[in-house]
Structures are given as C-alpha cells and as structure tokens.
Write a structure and sequence with these properties.
The complex is a heterodimer of chains A (about 375) and B (about 150). The radius of gyration of chain A is 19 Å and the shape is globular. Chain A contains 15 helices and eleven strands. In chain A, about 35% of the residues lie in helices and about 20% in strands. Chain B has one domain. Helix content of chain B is about 10%, strand content about 35%. The chains are: A alpha/beta (about 375), B mainly beta (about 150).
Chain lengths: ~375, ~150
Amino acid sequence: MAKKRVAVVGTGQTMHKSHRPDVNGQELIHEAVKTALADAELTINDIDAIVIGNMDHFEGINYVDCWSVDGSGGWMKPIIKLTTGGTTGSTLAIGGYHMVASGLFEKVLIIGWEKNSESDTTGAITTAFDPIWDRLVFAGAIAGLAAEGMAYMTEFGITDKDAARVSVRDRKHACNNPYAQLRQEVTLEEVLASPMLSDPIHLLDVCPRTDGACAVIMASEDVAQKICPTPAWVWGTANRHTYTYVGDLNLGEIDSMKYAAAELWKKTGITEPRKQIDVIELYQPYSFAGIIWIEAMGIIPRGKGAEYIWSGATDMGGELPINPSGGVIACNPIGATGLIRCAEACTQIMGKGGARQVPDVNLAVSTGFGGCFWTDILLYGKQKPDF
Amino acid sequence: MARGDHLVISSGDAVQPFNYAVGLHGSKFFHELKENRRIVGIKCPACGKVYTPPRRVCGDCFVENKEWLEVGPQGVIDTFTIVRYAFIDPETGKQKPVPYGYGFIRFDGADTRFQHFVELNEARPIKIGARVEPVFAEERKGTIRDILYFRILD
C-alpha cells in the first residue's frame, strides 16, 4: 500500500503532428514540460525528480535521460529512464506514481516523447521480438493485432464493419481535441474502402505515426491540493505481462488486460466498472481493440462488445464515453501515447477538457498497451481515495 | 533540403555480427527438424502444457520442463492474418514477400502456437481451424527456414 496518496496536479502536451522538423528532441520535450509546469503553476525548481522515456531504438539514439536535460529541466536532478515498448507512457505514469507514493519524492515530473518521423518504426519494433522464433514472419505491430482481430471475429461472428464503427467514433471525437494529429471525421464506408493492410485491418482502422511529447506532474497528498484545487487522485495501478514468444499468446482475448483490470477493480473497490467509471482513455491502436479489450476490462460481457459500441454508449454523451481525445487512432507519438492517455483522463477529472469534456467525471481510467500484448491500467478519482 | 543532404547512417556492405545462442532446448528442436523432419515439444511437469517452441522453463509454473514429446507434424491454424503492406525486413534488408499468410499453428499434441508462413491458395483458402502440414526444405540447415511454409490440407 502506498505510503502517500498521490495526485496528478498538472499536464502538458505538444500540438501533435506527423513531422516536427522545426524542433529537435530536447526542444520537443521542452514544449510539453513548459506547458505542464504552467498548468500546475510550478517552476522547474519545484520538481524533485524526473522520469522520462520513449521507445527503444526508435530514433536510433539512446539515453534520452542524459541528452534531454536542457529540455526536460533535469539538469542536476535525479532522473530515471523507463522504456517498455508501447506501454512506455503508461509505465512512466506508474513509475512516477511509485516514486511519489513511496514518500521519497514530493513532486515528480513525468515525460514521454517520440519523433516517429525520425524512426524506422517497424524495423525498431522488430528488435523487441525473438530473432530465432518470432522474426521470420513478423510484420511490425499490425500483424499480431490482425491475428487477434481475426480470432475474435471468427469466434463471435463480428465483421470489419463493427470495428469500423469504433474508428468512426474515435476520429469524430478527435475533432474536439486541439492536440490530436488527425482531426477529420470518416464514414463507415471510408474505413471499409481504405486499403487492407493485414486482414482484417484496414488503413483507417489503425493509428498513425506521430511526433509529440507529453508531461505530467504528480505530487504527494501533502502538497497536491495546494498546487491544484481539483487534482486527479491516483486510486490505483496494475500491469501484466504474459508471453515469451508471440505464439504463446492467447490471441482473441487479451489476458494481460483481463488480469490487470481485475486486480485494479479489486484493490480500489470497483464492483461495477461500467456503472461506476465515467470515462476511459483506452490505448487502442486499432479499432477491433475497442471491442475486444473493453470486454477483457470487464466493462461488458465477452462477445457483447460490438453491440455495446453500436448502441452509442461509448460516444460522447453516452453512458461511458471512451476516448474523448480521439485516442491512439488519431494520434500516436508512441513513447508519449500511454502518458497522453493518463493526461487526458486526468484532464477529464480536473474539468479542463474544453470541447472534449465529459460532464461530471468522478472516476476515469487510462490504459497502456504494448505490441507484445501487455497491459498497464490506471484509475483516477476526483475524490481522494480513503484507502 | 535535397535528399542527398540528409545524414545517412549505413553499415555499407558490412553485416551486424549478432550470434544468438538458441540454447539446448532450441538446439534439440532444430536438430530433430534437420535430421529427422520431426517436430518436438516439451511438457511442463506441473500444468502439463506442451510447448512448441520448446523451452527450459514453464513461465506460468516457474518449473523446469523435462519431458520431450513428438508433436505434429500436422496441426491446425489457431489464427492468422494475410500481410499485405510492404516493408523492408530489417533482418534481411529486403522487402517481406507480401502478400503472405502469417499463421499461428498449433501442432497436434502441442498447446502453444508456432509462427510460420502459410500458403495462399485460392482452392483452399486460409481459415481458422484449417488443418495444415509443413513443407520441408530438401536441404535442411537446422534453422526455422527448414520449413518452407505450411500447406493447407482441407
């Protein structure tokens, strides 16, 4: 159990774009840090430690903890780098939470960033997979997801049109988010007519590649409410890893999400997540996940996800809006992506969401996903947890 | 800026000298594949799960696997995709052979899935539940390419 309760007291993001040739890595990071500090009305001198990360190998340059200090504000401060693939951003949030919850640091600055435009994304992702057993047929992040979608489709008889409905939702929501890279509505027909990348995934079912950074400031209960009148309290976190080789995965249902979510609900006293949670920022790199993973999360029984999506329950104004920000399908600076989910969920708690604000958010969830099918999940509340 | 002005980092004709150990368990798999066209797996003494590819430890139970079994060579497609988008394979520097069938194959008697190419054949379309068998290379070297691809049987 945490020694100190922890809250998010400020967030900052860059305006995410496909290419940011006008800035280098330090400068991109600095934009997010500056915005987060302004949001919390703090200066860099108030920060006790920094946690930073991005995807291994992506820009062909390692040790961001060292070379970014001009931009991160990390000069002569304790810095830790965390990198866990697609989950990097959410792992950063969990790591920052651990540091503050331990009582060792009062205010921690958490930074995730990526310049995908400077990356060979598929080449870099390939290095995360076993050279002997995995790489012969390996095809980046998409093929494994496609195999998951195919398994689920076959088991439950859904179609790519059901999945396209998820993409239509997120791309519509993104139009409300000034930070999102892709802010254009699409129709079901446009999703289905877009090129098939890897059956059953169409181009408009998947996330783009983005340049961007995100920063989040977490503070202990001793100071959180002095910094921010309505902080987003971290109620709990969980994560799970499940596989050695890709063929070990139970593709079609995501075990890591199932077990991580079950643990999180149990330790935070959530008994009916669908009714109790007000908004979810789901790390959803492709549309089928919007159906499969909310089932694994325990929001809706297995096999009922598509029906729930079609009901409009997860649209803005629905029972449980998912991805008011437009989510990963609209914006994906990979090392920042999981942290953007955290920042967006906390923005909803703080009531600062502007056009993408969901009314009266008391409990919000963010998740993280990695191409190796692991899951991070975090729960935030407007009320300080009494545990 | 012209393309030629970009900083290019290249190894030229040199290759990167990674020299991975496959371990005793992986070696046995490749030895059986090469010499006998046999597929082997290994069984966890605690949960009974049969792993192919074989490995020393069952991660779920955290105990050492000891009992070798012959599995396959036929199996079933648990799931698959058809990869259609083109990209350069960093392992070879060449484009992947798109479109190709990417199968997750459960050998008869095994519990985990083996990843390999599956033929794309209009007469026998790839689908979940289809039975398959490996097509072995005539000249085998003890690598995963000793299986050329999996042929669909029904």
